[in-house]
Design goal:
This protein is α+β, with helices and mostly antiparallel strands. Helices cover 35% and strands 14% of the residues. It contains 13 helices and 13 strands. The strands form three sheets. Strands 1, 2, 3, 4, 5, 7, 8, 10 and 11 form a nine-stranded mixed β-sheet that branches. Strands 6-9 form a two-stranded parallel ribbon. α4 packs across α12 and α10 crosses α11. The longest helix has 19 residues.
Length: 400
């Protein structure tokens, strides 16, 4: 990966903020985010401090995932900034679905640099994220055979050993489910807008898949425990490089942008993309001067300069097109050039698939929770449901 910029880029806007710094340091900006690994939280707090802002931000030892971030913000009533999440949550936030969270009107100077990744006047894209299906093609994998599927769900009939997640919740897990269920979207189905065949297929993905306690599917693939697995695009390359350099694996994956013993499964549908956004919360009791400090931070954080440094640090793909150019030049990695079926319209619904997922996500979570999907111990797996005799009206509701 090209490295054109270092941490010094974070400071590029400091000069223009100097007159603002004294007052900014007097106000602590409260941030809620699911992009809150300890490394990210620490990096942002430190970089913002250098730029004259004081932040309070929980890492994922306090809460994790987009649901956790929004719930914490809604309960805390003290948020100034929300960033991360995905279109599902941002549509809800912008629409005012949460009692104590109102997104303020705000348009940054770089609004035109993020393409279509925006809720105009409300929230703007930071990072493009997608889920990927990967496979080994060496002796621990397909032995040179290239994998090509029509749909993500074809994995379950591939004849290869795959890794599956071990819980219903989590942003990446939800995106994998959205990818698996895409070909089964059916607006006429009482089963959360998904055909019964879709739920049967997802059950098979759980029942015959391998779960070994890893957070996501890259580690099992690196170890050679499975031949096919799933992971998210951000940090893929850095994780592969780190595993190869560690010397602790007998046969790690090798090569990043030019894979040597692995590849991305060629799936006709493409993949499910999301974007993570940045918005300013209309916090009750905050003065106009304090609000200007919060907006100045958002202006700084989403800028091409800072998003370049963020992308370099965390191996992510910025929504900001200037930052994309800074990081990758004309060599956009293949994993970000895949087709995006989140933008495809679902026949009979009048909605793009991303919006369709938004409208059914609660039902899908309830179905999976009520039926017991994603058990951790295969020895204690629940019995497969009697698919022909299920009460979907009840299963789509949260259990009492």
């Amino acid at each position: 990966m090209k490295k054109f910029f270092a941490f010094a880029l974070v400071l590029a806007m400091v000069a223009s903020l100097c007159a603002f710094t004294a007052s900014a340091e007097d106000y602590t900006i409260r941030i809620y985010s699911n992009s809150n690994s300890p490394e990210r939280a620490e990096w942002l707090i430190r970089a913002a401090k250098e730029a004259g802002f004081t932040l309070k931000m929980d890492d994922n030892s306090v809460y994790s995932g987009d649901t956790g971030a929004v719930q914490a913000a809604n309960e805390g009533k003290d948020g100034d900034i929300i960033f991360g999440l995905n279109e599902t949550r941002w549509t809800q936030l912008v629409n005012g679905d949460y009692q104590n969270i109102k997104i303020a009107d705000w348009t940054p100077s770089w609004a035109d640099e993020v393409g279509n990744y925006k809720y105009p006047g409300k929230a703007y894209g930071l990072v493009v994220q997608n889920v990927l299906m990967l496979y080994r093609n060496d002796e621990l994998g397909t032995k040179g055979e290239a994998l090509r599927f029509t749909h993500w769900a074809d994995m379950v009939n591939s004849g290869y050993k795959w890794y599956r997640q071990g819980k219903v919740g989590g942003t990446t897990n939800a995106n994998i489910n959205s990818a698996m269920l895409y070909p089964f979207a059916d607006p006429t189905s009482p089963a959360g807008g998904v055909s019964i065949e879709g739920w049967k297929t997802l059950w098979k993905y759980c029942a015959e898949g391998n779960f070994t306690g890893d957070s996501y599917g890259l580690e099992p693939l690196i170890r050679g425990d499975v031949q096919v697995s799933t992971f998210y695009s951000s940090s893929l390359y850095s994780n592969i490089d780190a595993a190869a350099d560690a010397g602790t694996y007998a046969n790690p994956l090798k090569g990043t942008i030019a894979p040597e013993n692995w590849n991305v499964v060629d799936i006709d549908d493409g993949t499910f993309y999301i974007a993570e956004y940045l918005g300013v919360v209309d916090r009750e009791g905050r003065t106009e001067a304090q609000t200007e400090i919060v907006k100045a931070f958002a202006e700084w954080f989403g800028s091409a300069e800072v998003q370049t440094a963020w992308a370099e640090e965390f191996d992510s793909f910025p929504c900001n097109e200037v930052a994309q150019k800074n990081v990758y030049g004309d060599d956009i990695p293949n994993i970000y050039a895949l087709k995006n079926f989140a933008l495809n319209e679902i026949e009979g619904s009048g909605m793009k698939y991303a919006d369709y997922v938004v409208s059914h996500s609660a039902e899908w979570t309830n179905i999976m929770t009520n039926l017991g999907f994603y058990w951790k111990d295969n020895a204690a797996a629940p019995a497969e449901p009697d698919w022909d005799n299920l009460d979907w009206a009840t299963l789509t509701q949260k259990a009492e």
